[in-house]
Amino acid sequence: MSVARTTADRPAPLRRRRAGRRQELFWGAVFLAPVLVSLVVLRIVPAVGAITSSLYKAFPGGIIPATYAGLANYRSLFADPGFNATIVRTIVFNLIINPAQILVALLVAVLLVQRIPLVGLWRTLMFVPVTIPIVGSCIAWGAALNPEGPVNAIISALGGDPQPFFTSPGQALASIMVIASWIGIGYWMLFLVSGLQAIPEELYDAAKIDRAGPVRTFLSITIPMLRRPLLFVLVADTVANFVLFVPVQLLTGGGPQSSTTLLMFEAYRTSFAYGSRNLGAAQVVLLTAIMLFFVLLQFRLLREEGESS
Amino acid sequence: MTTVQPDVAVAAPAAGGSRRQVGSRPMVTAVLTAVAVLVAVAFILPALWILVGSFRPTEDILSSMSPLTWQLFVPTEVTLDNYSRLLLDSGFSRALLNSAFVCIASVLIGLLVSAMAAYTLAVYRFPGRNIVFALVVISFMVPFEAIAIPLSQQFITWGLGNTLIGLILPGIGNGLAVFNLRQYFLGIPASYREAAMLDGASEPRILFGLYLRISGPALTNSAVLIFLGQWTAYLWPLLVISNTRLQLAPVALASTFGERSADYGQNFAGTVLLALVPAISMLVLQRFFGRLSLTSGEK
Protein backbone atom coordinates (compact mmCIF):
# COMPACT_ATOMS: atom_id res chain seq x y z
CA MET A 1 0.00 0.00 0.00
CA SER A 2 1.78 3.09 -1.14
CA VAL A 3 1.54 6.47 0.45
CA ALA A 4 0.91 8.10 -2.91
CA ARG A 5 -2.28 6.17 -3.61
CA THR A 6 -3.80 6.82 -0.20
CA THR A 7 -3.19 10.53 -0.54
CA ALA A 8 -5.09 10.46 -3.80
CA ASP A 9 -8.12 8.94 -2.10
CA ARG A 10 -10.87 11.28 -1.00
CA PRO A 11 -11.49 10.51 2.67
CA ALA A 12 -7.79 10.79 2.99
CA PRO A 13 -6.73 12.06 6.43
CA LEU A 14 -7.86 9.22 8.63
CA ARG A 15 -7.11 6.42 6.25
CA ARG A 16 -3.76 7.87 5.35
CA ARG A 17 -2.80 8.12 8.96
CA ARG A 18 -3.79 4.52 9.58
CA ALA A 19 -1.97 3.24 6.53
CA GLY A 20 1.03 5.35 7.47
CA ARG A 21 1.00 3.97 10.97
CA ARG A 22 0.86 0.40 9.72
CA GLN A 23 3.66 1.10 7.27
CA GLU A 24 5.72 2.70 10.02
CA LEU A 25 5.23 -0.31 12.22
CA PHE A 26 6.31 -2.64 9.42
CA TRP A 27 9.42 -0.71 8.48
CA GLY A 28 10.26 0.01 12.10
CA ALA A 29 10.27 -3.71 12.79
CA VAL A 30 12.35 -4.43 9.67
CA PHE A 31 14.86 -1.68 10.50
CA LEU A 32 15.22 -2.67 14.14
CA ALA A 33 15.42 -6.40 13.54
CA PRO A 34 19.16 -6.70 12.73
CA VAL A 35 20.21 -4.78 15.82
CA LEU A 36 17.82 -6.69 18.04
CA VAL A 37 18.89 -10.03 16.59
CA SER A 38 22.58 -9.22 17.01
CA LEU A 39 21.85 -8.05 20.53
CA VAL A 40 20.29 -11.39 21.36
CA VAL A 41 22.84 -13.51 19.52
CA LEU A 42 25.99 -11.57 20.43
CA ARG A 43 25.19 -10.50 23.98
CA ILE A 44 22.31 -12.30 25.60
CA VAL A 45 22.96 -15.83 24.32
CA PRO A 46 26.63 -15.87 25.41
CA ALA A 47 25.77 -14.30 28.79
CA VAL A 48 23.10 -16.89 29.48
CA GLY A 49 25.39 -19.55 28.04
CA ALA A 50 28.18 -18.59 30.42
CA ILE A 51 25.88 -18.75 33.43
CA THR A 52 24.44 -22.15 32.53
CA SER A 53 27.84 -23.51 31.51
CA SER A 54 29.25 -22.46 34.88
CA LEU A 55 26.71 -24.76 36.56
CA TYR A 56 27.95 -27.85 34.71
CA LYS A 57 31.06 -29.93 35.19
CA ALA A 58 33.05 -31.86 32.59
CA PHE A 59 36.46 -33.42 32.23
CA PRO A 60 38.75 -30.89 30.55
CA GLY A 61 38.69 -31.39 26.80
CA GLY A 62 36.82 -34.66 27.22
CA ILE A 63 34.10 -36.06 25.00
CA ILE A 64 31.89 -37.12 27.90
CA PRO A 65 28.99 -34.64 28.12
CA ALA A 66 29.02 -32.23 31.03
CA THR A 67 26.74 -32.97 33.94
CA TYR A 68 24.79 -30.53 36.09
CA ALA A 69 26.77 -29.73 39.19
CA GLY A 70 25.09 -26.71 40.75
CA LEU A 71 27.57 -24.38 42.36
CA ALA A 72 30.37 -26.95 42.47
CA ASN A 73 32.58 -24.92 40.12
CA TYR A 74 32.24 -21.84 42.28
CA ARG A 75 32.92 -23.84 45.42
CA SER A 76 36.10 -25.33 44.00
CA LEU A 77 37.24 -21.91 42.76
CA PHE A 78 36.82 -20.34 46.18
CA ALA A 79 38.51 -23.31 47.82
CA ASP A 80 41.62 -22.56 45.76
CA PRO A 81 43.94 -20.04 47.48
CA GLY A 82 45.54 -19.22 44.13
CA PHE A 83 42.20 -18.16 42.69
CA ASN A 84 41.30 -16.13 45.76
CA ALA A 85 44.62 -14.34 45.39
CA THR A 86 43.73 -13.62 41.74
CA ILE A 87 40.43 -12.04 42.78
CA VAL A 88 42.11 -9.92 45.46
CA ARG A 89 44.85 -8.94 42.99
CA THR A 90 42.28 -7.92 40.36
CA ILE A 91 40.36 -5.79 42.86
CA VAL A 92 43.48 -4.14 44.28
CA PHE A 93 44.76 -3.49 40.76
CA ASN A 94 41.50 -1.70 39.92
CA LEU A 95 41.32 0.18 43.21
CA ILE A 96 44.74 1.65 42.44
CA ILE A 97 44.73 2.16 38.69
CA ASN A 98 41.26 3.66 38.16
CA PRO A 99 41.41 6.57 40.64
CA ALA A 100 45.05 7.17 39.70
CA GLN A 101 44.37 7.34 35.96
CA ILE A 102 41.36 9.60 36.37
CA LEU A 103 43.20 11.87 38.80
CA VAL A 104 46.15 12.30 36.44
CA ALA A 105 43.81 12.74 33.47
CA LEU A 106 41.93 15.43 35.40
CA LEU A 107 45.13 17.28 36.34
CA VAL A 108 46.34 17.16 32.75
CA ALA A 109 42.92 18.24 31.45
CA VAL A 110 42.89 21.23 33.80
CA LEU A 111 46.39 22.09 32.66
CA LEU A 112 45.45 21.79 28.99
CA VAL A 113 42.47 24.15 29.17
CA GLN A 114 44.69 26.98 30.47
CA ARG A 115 45.58 29.93 28.34
CA ILE A 116 48.99 28.67 27.23
CA PRO A 117 50.71 28.73 23.84
CA LEU A 118 50.03 25.82 21.45
CA VAL A 119 47.68 24.15 23.89
CA GLY A 120 46.08 22.17 21.04
CA LEU A 121 49.45 20.72 20.09
CA TRP A 122 50.13 19.47 23.64
CA ARG A 123 46.69 17.88 23.70
CA THR A 124 47.30 16.17 20.37
CA LEU A 125 50.70 14.83 21.48
CA MET A 126 49.11 13.38 24.62
CA PHE A 127 46.52 11.72 22.46
CA VAL A 128 49.04 9.95 20.18
CA PRO A 129 49.39 6.88 22.46
CA VAL A 130 45.64 6.35 22.19
CA THR A 131 45.93 5.96 18.42
CA ILE A 132 48.48 3.14 18.67
CA PRO A 133 46.76 -0.26 18.81
CA ILE A 134 47.31 -1.80 22.22
CA VAL A 135 49.41 -4.63 20.78
CA GLY A 136 51.86 -2.04 19.44
CA SER A 137 51.96 -0.17 22.74
CA CYS A 138 52.66 -3.36 24.61
CA ILE A 139 55.48 -4.31 22.22
CA ALA A 140 57.05 -0.87 22.57
CA TRP A 141 56.85 -0.89 26.35
CA GLY A 142 57.95 -4.50 26.53
CA ALA A 143 61.12 -3.41 24.72
CA ALA A 144 61.47 -0.17 26.68
CA LEU A 145 61.14 -1.88 30.07
CA ASN A 146 63.62 -4.61 29.18
CA PRO A 147 66.17 -4.77 32.03
CA GLU A 148 68.81 -3.58 29.54
CA GLY A 149 66.39 -1.19 27.86
CA PRO A 150 66.15 2.57 27.49
CA VAL A 151 64.08 3.19 30.63
CA ASN A 152 66.82 1.67 32.76
CA ALA A 153 69.37 3.66 30.76
CA ILE A 154 67.49 6.83 31.74
CA ILE A 155 67.26 5.72 35.37
CA SER A 156 71.00 5.01 35.42
CA ALA A 157 71.76 8.34 33.78
CA LEU A 158 69.76 10.05 36.53
CA GLY A 159 71.81 8.17 39.12
CA GLY A 160 69.33 5.44 40.03
CA ASP A 161 69.70 1.67 40.12
CA PRO A 162 68.42 -0.36 37.16
CA GLN A 163 65.07 -2.02 37.88
CA PRO A 164 63.93 -5.54 36.91
CA PHE A 165 60.37 -4.46 35.84
CA PHE A 166 58.60 -7.44 34.25
CA THR A 167 61.09 -9.95 35.60
CA SER A 168 60.28 -9.17 39.21
CA PRO A 169 57.08 -10.26 41.01
CA GLY A 170 57.17 -7.00 42.92
CA GLN A 171 57.26 -4.74 39.85
CA ALA A 172 55.55 -6.58 37.00
CA LEU A 173 52.00 -5.50 37.86
CA ALA A 174 53.12 -1.91 38.43
CA SER A 175 54.80 -2.01 35.00
CA ILE A 176 51.49 -3.11 33.48
CA MET A 177 49.82 -0.18 35.22
CA VAL A 178 52.32 2.17 33.59
CA ILE A 179 51.53 0.79 30.13
CA ALA A 180 47.76 0.93 30.67
CA SER A 181 48.07 4.50 31.93
CA TRP A 182 50.25 5.62 29.05
CA ILE A 183 47.46 4.50 26.74
CA GLY A 184 44.49 5.53 28.87
CA ILE A 185 45.28 8.93 30.32
CA GLY A 186 45.24 10.83 27.03
CA TYR A 187 41.90 9.27 26.19
CA TRP A 188 40.16 10.16 29.46
CA MET A 189 41.82 13.57 29.39
CA LEU A 190 39.96 14.42 26.17
CA PHE A 191 36.56 13.71 27.74
CA LEU A 192 37.45 15.83 30.75
CA VAL A 193 38.72 18.67 28.55
CA SER A 194 35.37 18.90 26.79
CA GLY A 195 33.65 18.64 30.18
CA LEU A 196 35.72 21.54 31.47
CA GLN A 197 34.97 23.59 28.39
CA ALA A 198 31.24 23.06 28.92
CA ILE A 199 31.26 24.73 32.34
CA PRO A 200 29.52 28.12 31.96
CA GLU A 201 31.80 31.10 32.19
CA GLU A 202 29.40 32.99 34.47
CA LEU A 203 30.14 30.62 37.33
CA TYR A 204 33.79 31.58 37.25
CA ASP A 205 32.87 35.26 36.98
CA ALA A 206 30.71 34.87 40.07
CA ALA A 207 33.56 33.17 41.91
CA LYS A 208 35.84 35.99 40.91
CA ILE A 209 33.41 38.54 42.32
CA ASP A 210 33.25 36.53 45.52
CA ARG A 211 37.06 36.65 45.61
CA ALA A 212 37.37 32.89 45.70
CA GLY A 213 40.95 31.64 45.29
CA PRO A 214 41.94 29.10 42.61
CA VAL A 215 41.73 26.12 44.96
CA ARG A 216 38.34 27.17 46.31
CA THR A 217 37.08 27.80 42.77
CA PHE A 218 38.31 24.39 41.68
CA LEU A 219 36.67 22.55 44.57
CA SER A 220 33.41 24.52 44.63
CA ILE A 221 32.79 25.04 40.93
CA THR A 222 34.97 22.88 38.68
CA ILE A 223 34.60 19.56 40.52
CA PRO A 224 30.81 19.79 41.12
CA MET A 225 30.20 20.94 37.56
CA LEU A 226 32.41 18.16 36.26
CA ARG A 227 30.65 15.41 38.21
CA ARG A 228 28.85 13.89 35.22
CA PRO A 229 31.88 13.58 32.93
CA LEU A 230 33.95 12.43 35.90
CA LEU A 231 31.46 9.69 36.70
CA PHE A 232 31.41 8.66 33.06
CA VAL A 233 35.18 8.39 32.69
CA LEU A 234 35.54 6.64 36.04
CA VAL A 235 32.95 4.01 35.13
CA ALA A 236 34.31 3.53 31.61
CA ASP A 237 37.87 3.30 32.92
CA THR A 238 36.86 0.75 35.55
CA VAL A 239 35.13 -1.39 32.96
CA ALA A 240 38.15 -1.18 30.64
CA ASN A 241 40.64 -2.11 33.35
CA PHE A 242 38.64 -5.05 34.68
CA VAL A 243 38.88 -6.68 31.26
CA LEU A 244 42.49 -5.63 30.63
CA PHE A 245 44.07 -8.54 28.81
CA VAL A 246 46.67 -7.78 26.13
CA PRO A 247 49.65 -6.67 28.27
CA VAL A 248 49.24 -9.68 30.55
CA GLN A 249 48.90 -12.18 27.74
CA LEU A 250 51.61 -10.63 25.59
CA LEU A 251 54.23 -9.53 28.10
CA THR A 252 54.06 -11.58 31.28
CA GLY A 253 51.75 -14.55 30.72
CA GLY A 254 50.47 -13.93 34.24
CA GLY A 255 53.92 -14.26 35.79
CA PRO A 256 56.41 -13.98 37.36
CA GLN A 257 55.04 -16.07 40.22
CA SER A 258 51.43 -15.24 39.24
CA SER A 259 52.06 -11.59 40.15
CA THR A 260 50.24 -10.35 37.03
CA THR A 261 47.50 -13.00 36.84
CA LEU A 262 44.37 -10.86 36.62
CA LEU A 263 40.90 -12.40 36.44
CA MET A 264 40.39 -11.74 32.72
CA PHE A 265 43.62 -13.53 31.81
CA GLU A 266 42.86 -16.31 34.26
CA ALA A 267 39.45 -16.91 32.63
CA TYR A 268 41.11 -17.04 29.21
CA ARG A 269 43.79 -19.43 30.39
CA THR A 270 41.34 -21.71 32.18
CA SER A 271 39.03 -21.84 29.15
CA PHE A 272 41.64 -22.33 26.45
CA ALA A 273 45.06 -23.36 27.74
CA TYR A 274 43.61 -25.69 30.39
CA GLY A 275 40.49 -26.54 28.38
CA SER A 276 38.16 -26.24 31.37
CA ARG A 277 35.21 -24.52 29.73
CA ASN A 278 32.85 -24.76 32.67
CA LEU A 279 35.35 -23.52 35.21
CA GLY A 280 36.34 -20.73 32.82
CA ALA A 281 32.67 -19.79 32.44
CA ALA A 282 32.35 -19.54 36.22
CA GLN A 283 35.35 -17.21 36.25
CA VAL A 284 33.79 -15.03 33.53
CA VAL A 285 30.57 -14.83 35.56
CA LEU A 286 32.53 -13.83 38.67
CA LEU A 287 34.53 -11.24 36.73
CA THR A 288 31.35 -9.66 35.37
CA ALA A 289 29.68 -9.71 38.80
CA ILE A 290 32.63 -8.03 40.51
CA MET A 291 32.91 -5.45 37.73
CA LEU A 292 29.19 -4.63 37.91
CA PHE A 293 29.44 -4.34 41.68
CA PHE A 294 32.14 -1.68 41.38
CA VAL A 295 30.33 0.17 38.61
CA LEU A 296 27.08 0.31 40.62
CA LEU A 297 29.03 1.39 43.69
CA GLN A 298 30.55 4.29 41.76
CA PHE A 299 27.14 5.34 40.46
CA ARG A 300 25.76 5.28 43.98
CA LEU A 301 28.58 7.15 45.62
CA LEU A 302 28.80 9.89 43.03
CA ARG A 303 25.06 10.30 42.73
CA GLU A 304 24.52 10.56 46.47
CA GLU A 305 27.21 13.16 46.66
CA GLY A 306 25.40 15.07 43.96
CA GLU A 307 22.10 14.95 45.81
CA SER A 308 23.54 16.16 49.06
CA SER A 309 25.04 19.27 47.51
CA MET B 1 49.33 30.49 17.28
CA THR B 2 48.68 31.64 20.82
CA THR B 3 44.99 31.86 20.14
CA VAL B 4 43.04 33.25 23.00
CA GLN B 5 40.26 30.99 24.10
CA PRO B 6 37.81 33.21 25.90
CA ASP B 7 35.77 30.49 27.53
CA VAL B 8 38.73 28.28 28.29
CA ALA B 9 40.88 31.05 29.68
CA VAL B 10 38.18 32.06 32.10
CA ALA B 11 37.35 28.48 32.88
CA ALA B 12 40.91 28.03 34.00
CA PRO B 13 40.65 27.67 37.74
CA ALA B 14 44.30 27.94 38.58
CA ALA B 15 45.16 30.57 36.01
CA GLY B 16 44.43 33.71 37.86
CA GLY B 17 40.96 33.33 39.24
CA SER B 18 41.39 36.58 41.15
CA ARG B 19 42.47 40.02 40.12
CA ARG B 20 45.42 40.01 42.46
CA GLN B 21 47.21 37.61 40.14
CA VAL B 22 46.98 39.77 37.05
CA GLY B 23 50.54 41.01 37.56
CA SER B 24 52.03 37.51 37.70
CA ARG B 25 50.20 36.32 34.58
CA PRO B 26 53.23 35.92 32.24
CA MET B 27 55.09 34.01 34.96
CA VAL B 28 52.11 31.71 35.52
CA THR B 29 51.79 31.14 31.79
CA ALA B 30 55.48 30.28 31.48
CA VAL B 31 55.34 27.74 34.31
CA LEU B 32 52.14 26.15 33.01
CA THR B 33 53.55 25.95 29.50
CA ALA B 34 56.71 24.30 30.78
CA VAL B 35 54.67 21.69 32.66
CA ALA B 36 52.47 21.09 29.59
CA VAL B 37 55.54 20.59 27.40
CA LEU B 38 57.09 18.16 29.89
CA VAL B 39 53.90 16.11 30.12
CA ALA B 40 53.44 16.07 26.35
CA VAL B 41 57.06 15.02 25.78
CA ALA B 42 56.76 12.22 28.35
CA PHE B 43 53.76 10.88 26.46
CA ILE B 44 55.17 11.26 22.96
CA LEU B 45 58.73 9.96 23.53
CA PRO B 46 57.90 6.23 23.54
CA ALA B 47 55.92 6.68 20.32
CA LEU B 48 58.80 8.61 18.77
CA TRP B 49 61.19 5.86 19.81
CA ILE B 50 59.08 3.28 17.96
CA LEU B 51 58.82 5.46 14.87
CA VAL B 52 62.58 6.11 14.70
CA GLY B 53 63.34 2.48 15.55
CA SER B 54 61.24 1.23 12.67
CA PHE B 55 63.66 2.92 10.25
CA ARG B 56 66.92 1.63 11.75
CA PRO B 57 68.54 -1.79 11.87
CA THR B 58 67.68 -3.92 14.89
CA GLU B 59 71.35 -3.98 15.98
CA ASP B 60 71.27 -0.20 15.98
CA ILE B 61 68.18 -0.18 18.23
CA LEU B 62 69.79 -2.65 20.60
CA SER B 63 73.18 -0.93 20.78
CA SER B 64 71.59 2.49 21.33
CA MET B 65 69.33 1.37 24.17
CA SER B 66 71.83 1.51 27.00
CA PRO B 67 73.71 3.47 28.32
CA LEU B 68 71.75 6.64 27.62
CA THR B 69 73.10 8.72 24.74
CA TRP B 70 71.58 11.01 22.17
CA GLN B 71 71.70 8.03 19.81
CA LEU B 72 68.64 6.59 21.51
CA PHE B 73 66.55 8.75 19.20
CA VAL B 74 68.98 9.38 16.35
CA PRO B 75 69.72 6.46 14.04
CA THR B 76 73.22 5.95 12.68
CA GLU B 77 71.71 4.25 9.66
CA VAL B 78 68.29 4.83 8.11
CA THR B 79 66.78 1.87 6.31
CA LEU B 80 63.48 0.54 5.02
CA ASP B 81 64.73 -2.97 5.56
CA ASN B 82 62.39 -3.64 8.52
CA TYR B 83 59.37 -2.77 6.44
CA SER B 84 60.42 -4.76 3.41
CA ARG B 85 61.24 -7.85 5.47
CA LEU B 86 57.98 -7.55 7.38
CA LEU B 87 55.82 -7.07 4.30
CA LEU B 88 57.59 -9.40 1.89
CA ASP B 89 59.03 -12.23 3.95
CA SER B 90 56.46 -12.76 6.66
CA GLY B 91 52.74 -13.41 6.65
CA PHE B 92 52.11 -9.87 7.81
CA SER B 93 50.94 -8.57 4.43
CA ARG B 94 48.27 -11.21 4.31
CA ALA B 95 47.26 -10.36 7.89
CA LEU B 96 47.01 -6.68 6.93
CA LEU B 97 44.81 -7.56 3.97
CA ASN B 98 42.62 -9.73 6.19
CA SER B 99 42.32 -6.87 8.65
CA ALA B 100 41.45 -4.41 5.89
CA PHE B 101 38.79 -6.73 4.50
CA VAL B 102 37.25 -7.39 7.92
CA CYS B 103 37.26 -3.68 8.73
CA ILE B 104 35.67 -2.58 5.48
CA ALA B 105 33.00 -5.29 5.62
CA SER B 106 32.27 -4.43 9.26
CA VAL B 107 31.94 -0.74 8.44
CA LEU B 108 29.56 -1.36 5.53
CA ILE B 109 27.34 -3.83 7.37
CA GLY B 110 27.66 -1.98 10.66
CA LEU B 111 26.66 1.37 9.16
CA LEU B 112 23.67 -0.18 7.45
CA VAL B 113 22.47 -1.93 10.60
CA SER B 114 23.14 1.07 12.85
CA ALA B 115 21.52 3.55 10.48
CA MET B 116 18.35 1.48 10.17
CA ALA B 117 18.06 1.20 13.95
CA ALA B 118 18.92 4.85 14.50
CA TYR B 119 16.33 5.95 11.93
CA THR B 120 13.61 3.87 13.60
CA LEU B 121 14.50 5.20 17.03
CA ALA B 122 14.70 8.80 15.85
CA VAL B 123 11.67 9.04 13.59
CA TYR B 124 9.02 6.56 14.67
CA ARG B 125 6.85 6.91 17.75
CA PHE B 126 6.03 3.57 19.27
CA PRO B 127 5.54 2.43 22.85
CA GLY B 128 8.77 1.30 24.47
CA ARG B 129 10.91 3.30 22.06
CA ASN B 130 13.05 4.74 24.81
CA ILE B 131 13.45 1.36 26.46
CA VAL B 132 14.65 -0.19 23.19
CA PHE B 133 17.05 2.71 22.70
CA ALA B 134 18.46 2.43 26.21
CA LEU B 135 18.77 -1.33 25.81
CA VAL B 136 20.68 -1.02 22.54
CA VAL B 137 23.12 1.54 23.88
CA ILE B 138 23.72 -0.09 27.26
CA SER B 139 24.10 -3.61 25.95
CA PHE B 140 26.69 -2.57 23.41
CA MET B 141 28.54 -0.52 25.99
CA VAL B 142 29.05 -3.51 28.27
CA PRO B 143 32.61 -4.46 27.37
CA PHE B 144 32.79 -6.99 24.61
CA GLU B 145 35.74 -8.68 26.33
CA ALA B 146 33.51 -9.74 29.22
CA ILE B 147 31.48 -12.04 26.99
CA ALA B 148 34.15 -12.74 24.36
CA ILE B 149 35.20 -16.07 25.86
CA PRO B 150 31.69 -17.63 26.07
CA LEU B 151 30.72 -16.03 22.74
CA SER B 152 33.78 -17.49 21.01
CA GLN B 153 32.80 -20.95 22.24
CA GLN B 154 29.30 -20.41 20.81
CA PHE B 155 30.79 -19.25 17.51
CA ILE B 156 32.96 -22.33 17.27
CA THR B 157 29.94 -24.58 17.95
CA TRP B 158 28.02 -22.71 15.26
CA GLY B 159 30.83 -23.39 12.80
CA LEU B 160 31.96 -19.76 12.65
CA GLY B 161 35.43 -20.41 14.00
CA ASN B 162 38.17 -19.75 11.42
CA THR B 163 35.80 -17.80 9.16
CA LEU B 164 35.80 -14.17 8.09
CA ILE B 165 32.11 -13.93 8.99
CA GLY B 166 33.01 -15.00 12.50
CA LEU B 167 35.47 -12.10 12.64
CA ILE B 168 33.04 -9.55 11.19
CA LEU B 169 29.84 -10.29 13.12
CA PRO B 170 30.82 -9.05 16.60
CA GLY B 171 32.04 -5.76 15.13
CA ILE B 172 28.78 -4.69 13.53
CA GLY B 173 26.70 -3.97 16.62
CA ASN B 174 28.05 -0.70 17.91
CA GLY B 175 25.84 1.11 20.42
CA LEU B 176 27.81 4.31 20.09
CA ALA B 177 27.26 4.33 16.32
CA VAL B 178 23.52 3.87 16.82
CA PHE B 179 23.57 6.64 19.41
CA ASN B 180 25.53 9.08 17.21
CA LEU B 181 23.37 8.49 14.16
CA ARG B 182 20.14 8.80 16.14
CA GLN B 183 21.23 12.12 17.63
CA TYR B 184 22.06 13.36 14.15
CA PHE B 185 18.78 12.11 12.66
CA LEU B 186 16.83 13.84 15.43
CA GLY B 187 18.25 17.12 14.16
CA ILE B 188 16.88 16.60 10.64
CA PRO B 189 13.60 18.54 10.32
CA ALA B 190 10.50 16.33 10.23
CA SER B 191 9.23 18.40 7.32
CA TYR B 192 11.88 16.81 5.04
CA ARG B 193 10.45 13.41 5.75
CA GLU B 194 6.87 14.56 5.36
CA ALA B 195 7.68 16.15 2.02
CA ALA B 196 9.32 12.95 0.84
CA MET B 197 6.31 10.93 1.94
CA LEU B 198 3.95 13.22 0.04
CA ASP B 199 6.13 12.60 -3.00
CA GLY B 200 5.43 8.92 -2.49
CA ALA B 201 8.84 7.89 -1.24
CA SER B 202 8.91 4.64 0.71
CA GLU B 203 10.60 4.41 4.11
CA PRO B 204 13.77 2.81 2.75
CA ARG B 205 13.92 5.54 0.08
CA ILE B 206 13.63 8.21 2.77
CA LEU B 207 16.35 6.59 4.87
CA PHE B 208 18.83 5.87 2.08
CA GLY B 209 18.00 8.66 -0.34
CA LEU B 210 17.44 11.47 2.12
CA TYR B 211 18.69 10.85 5.65
CA LEU B 212 21.94 9.10 4.82
CA ARG B 213 22.71 11.55 2.04
CA ILE B 214 22.78 14.48 4.44
CA SER B 215 24.43 12.69 7.36
CA GLY B 216 28.05 12.78 6.21
CA PRO B 217 29.70 13.79 9.50
CA ALA B 218 27.66 11.38 11.62
CA LEU B 219 28.31 8.54 9.16
CA THR B 220 32.03 9.28 9.10
CA ASN B 221 32.18 9.33 12.86
CA SER B 222 30.33 6.04 13.15
CA ALA B 223 32.39 4.46 10.38
CA VAL B 224 35.60 5.40 12.18
CA LEU B 225 34.27 3.97 15.44
CA ILE B 226 33.45 0.64 13.85
CA PHE B 227 36.64 0.59 11.79
CA LEU B 228 38.93 1.27 14.74
CA GLY B 229 37.15 -1.26 16.90
CA GLN B 230 37.94 -3.95 14.36
CA TRP B 231 41.37 -2.66 13.38
CA THR B 232 42.66 -2.86 16.95
CA ALA B 233 40.79 -6.03 17.93
CA TYR B 234 43.10 -8.59 19.49
CA LEU B 235 41.27 -10.87 21.90
CA TRP B 236 38.46 -11.86 19.52
CA PRO B 237 40.61 -12.92 16.55
CA LEU B 238 42.90 -14.70 18.99
CA LEU B 239 39.90 -16.69 20.24
CA VAL B 240 38.14 -17.60 16.99
CA ILE B 241 41.03 -17.90 14.50
CA SER B 242 43.59 -20.67 14.67
CA ASN B 243 44.38 -20.77 10.96
CA THR B 244 47.36 -18.43 10.47
CA ARG B 245 46.30 -17.63 6.90
CA LEU B 246 43.14 -16.00 8.26
CA GLN B 247 44.79 -14.22 11.16
CA LEU B 248 44.40 -10.46 11.62
CA ALA B 249 47.27 -8.00 11.82
CA PRO B 250 47.40 -7.31 15.60
CA VAL B 251 47.58 -11.01 16.43
CA ALA B 252 50.12 -11.61 13.66
CA LEU B 253 52.26 -8.79 15.05
CA ALA B 254 52.00 -10.16 18.58
CA SER B 255 53.05 -13.61 17.43
CA THR B 256 56.23 -12.29 15.78
CA PHE B 257 56.99 -10.43 19.01
CA GLY B 258 56.65 -13.62 20.96
CA GLU B 259 58.76 -15.74 18.62
CA ARG B 260 61.84 -13.60 18.12
CA SER B 261 61.75 -10.96 20.78
CA ALA B 262 65.06 -9.58 19.59
CA ASP B 263 63.81 -8.44 16.18
CA TYR B 264 62.69 -5.06 17.44
CA GLY B 265 63.13 -3.37 14.06
CA GLN B 266 60.50 -5.55 12.47
CA ASN B 267 58.22 -5.33 15.52
CA PHE B 268 58.41 -1.56 15.52
CA ALA B 269 57.74 -1.39 11.78
CA GLY B 270 54.61 -3.49 12.31
CA THR B 271 53.53 -1.23 15.16
CA VAL B 272 53.95 1.87 12.99
CA LEU B 273 51.96 0.28 10.16
CA LEU B 274 49.16 -0.64 12.56
CA ALA B 275 49.15 2.80 14.19
CA LEU B 276 49.06 4.65 10.87
CA VAL B 277 45.43 3.89 10.14
CA PRO B 278 44.02 4.99 13.52
CA ALA B 279 46.21 8.10 13.48
CA ILE B 280 44.88 9.11 10.06
CA SER B 281 41.31 8.34 11.14
CA MET B 282 41.74 10.57 14.16
CA LEU B 283 42.88 13.37 11.89
CA VAL B 284 39.75 12.87 9.79
CA LEU B 285 37.61 12.90 12.91
CA GLN B 286 39.40 16.00 14.07
CA ARG B 287 38.38 17.78 10.92
CA PHE B 288 34.77 17.05 11.73
CA PHE B 289 34.84 17.76 15.40
CA GLY B 290 37.79 20.06 15.83
CA ARG B 291 38.63 18.84 19.29
CA LEU B 292 42.25 18.03 18.57
CA SER B 293 43.23 21.03 16.56
CA LEU B 294 46.89 20.73 15.68
CA THR B 295 47.57 24.33 14.84
CA SER B 296 45.91 26.21 17.65
CA GLY B 297 43.98 25.85 20.81
CA GLU B 298 40.78 26.88 19.18
CA LYS B 299 37.77 24.77 19.75
TrEMBL record, chain A:
Q: Where in the cell is it found?
A: Cell membrane
Q: Where is the ABC transmembrane type-1 domain?
A: 87-298
Q: Which UniProt keywords apply?
A: Cell membrane, Membrane, Sugar transport, Transmembrane, Transmembrane helix, Transport
Note whether Cytoplasm occurs among the keywords: no
What's in the GO CC field?
plasma membrane
Q: Keyword Transcription: yes or no?
A: no
What is the name listed in the Swiss-Prot or TrEMBL entry for this protein? Multiple sugar transport system permease protein
What's the protein's topology in the membrane? Answer: Multi-pass membrane protein
Q: Name one GO biological process term.
A: transmembrane transport
Pfam families given in the database record: BPD_transp_1
Species annotation: Microlunatus antarcticus
Q: What is its main location?
A: membrane
Q: What residues form the membrane-spanning segments? A: 25-45, 91-113, 125-144, 172-193, 230-250, 281-302
The family annotation for this protein states:
Belongs to the binding-protein-dependent transport system permease family.
Automatic annotation (TrEMBL), chain B:
- Which Pfam family, any one of them, does this sequence belong to? BPD_transp_1
Q: Which SUPFAM superfamilies match?
A: MetI-like
The record gives the membrane topology as:
Multi-pass membrane protein
Coiled-coil blocks: none
What positions does the domain ABC transmembrane type-1 occupy?
A: 96-285
Source organism's superkingdom?
A: Bacteria
Keyword Transmembrane helix applies: yes
The entry's localization annotation reads:
Cell membrane
Keywords of this entry: Cell membrane, Membrane, Transmembrane, Transmembrane helix, Transport
One GO cellular component this record assigns the protein to is:
plasma membrane
Major site of localization recorded for this protein: membrane
Which positions, given as ranges, span the membrane? 28-52, 95-119, 131-152, 164-185, 206-228, 268-289
GO biological process terms, alphabetically, are:
transmembrane transport
Q: Which family does it belong to?
A: Belongs to the binding-protein-dependent transport system permease family.
Q: What is this protein called?
A: ABC-type glycerol-3-phosphate transport system permease component
Q: Which organism is it from?
A: Microlunatus antarcticus
Q: Which classification does the entry list for the species?
A: Bacteria, Bacillati, Actinomycetota, Actinomycetes, Propionibacteriales
